């Protein structure tokens, strides 16, 4: 009963009580050999050199350890955030927003924040920062930041929509 694990479990249970759609699975890797092997497998997949407990997989992110709710908890909640960067008058942005309205009920655990980068300077700076981190010079709009990825553009639900949903369901 690692104190950090106890804190992490309490936090994610509380988060799941506030947001529907979160599935929780808890494993004691000291008592469950297959769970320990799975932890090592996931550590390799996510290129984590120092697997440990607690380990949390959320929206494609593999988080190891627990500091405080304000920092580690924020990392968990940020993993359940979809940031969408748009601009007024953009037809692709309008269609993306229509798609997101249909997507939200299927993925209620995720918080969607939509920003107009021309009306919100902080959102524009965030978008420019993300574009730089992802090696994109001047990407178009709309752009979706989720699951450590920046997806630029929106063609249709069948193309971009499928790509976004694949990110949401990856582990």
Which secondary-structure class do the elements indicate? alpha+beta
**Rounded to an integer, what's the Rg over CA atoms?**
18 Å
Biggest β-sheet: strands ordered side by side in the sheet: 4-3-5-6
H/E series, N to C?
A: HHEEHEHEHEEH
Percentage of residues assigned to helices: 40-55%
DSSP E strands, number? 6
**Cα distance, first to last residue?**
26 Å
Instruction: State the low-pLDDT regions, or none.
Output: none
Overall average pLDDT: 94
Reported for the largest beta sheet, the result is: 4 strands, mixed
Strand content: 15-25%
Tell me the overall shape: elongated
Number of helices: 6
Please tell me about this protein's structure.
The protein has helices spanning 3-18, 33-45, 69-79, 91-103, 121-133, 157-168, and strands at residues 55-58, 61-64, 81-86, 111-116, 143-146, 149-152. It is an alpha+beta fold and 171 residues long. Strands 4-3-5-6 form a four-stranded mixed beta sheet, with helices on both faces. Strands 1-2 form a two-stranded antiparallel sheet. A hairpin with a 2-residue loop joins β1 and β2. α1 (3-18) crosses α3. The mean pLDDT is 94.
Task: Show the helix and strand layout.
Elements: H1 3-18, H2 33-45, E1 55-58, E2 61-64, H3 69-79, E3 81-86, H4 91-103, E4 111-116, H5 121-133, E5 143-146, E6 149-152, H6 157-168
Parallel strand pairs: 3-4
Antiparallel strand pairs: 1-2, 3-5, 5-6
Helix pairs in contact: 1-3
Search tags:
4-stranded mixed β-sheet, 6 strands, alpha+beta, 171 residues, 16% strand, 6 helices, elongated, 46% helix
């Amino acid at each position: 009963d690692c104190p950090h694990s106890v804190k992490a479990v309490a936090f994610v249970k509380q988060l799941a009580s506030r947001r529907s759609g979160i599935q929780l699975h808890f494993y004691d890797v000291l008592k469950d050999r297959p769970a320990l092997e799975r932890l090592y497998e996931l550590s390799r997949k996510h290129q984590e050199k120092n697997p440990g407990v607690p380990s949390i997989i959320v929206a494609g992110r593999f988080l190891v350890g627990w500091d405080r709710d304000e920092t580690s908890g924020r990392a968990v909640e940020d993993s359940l955030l979809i940031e969408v960067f748009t601009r007024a008058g953009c037809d692709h942005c309008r269609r993306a927003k229509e798609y997101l309205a249909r997507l939200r009920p299927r993925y209620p655990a995720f918080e969607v924040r939509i920003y107009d980068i021309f009306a919100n300077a902080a959102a524009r700076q965030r978008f420019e920062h993300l574009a730089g981190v992802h090696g994109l010079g001047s990407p178009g709009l709309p752009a979706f930041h989720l699951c450590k990825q920046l997806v630029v553009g929106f063609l249709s639900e069948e193309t971009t929509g499928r790509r976004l949903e694949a990110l949401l369901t990856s582990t």
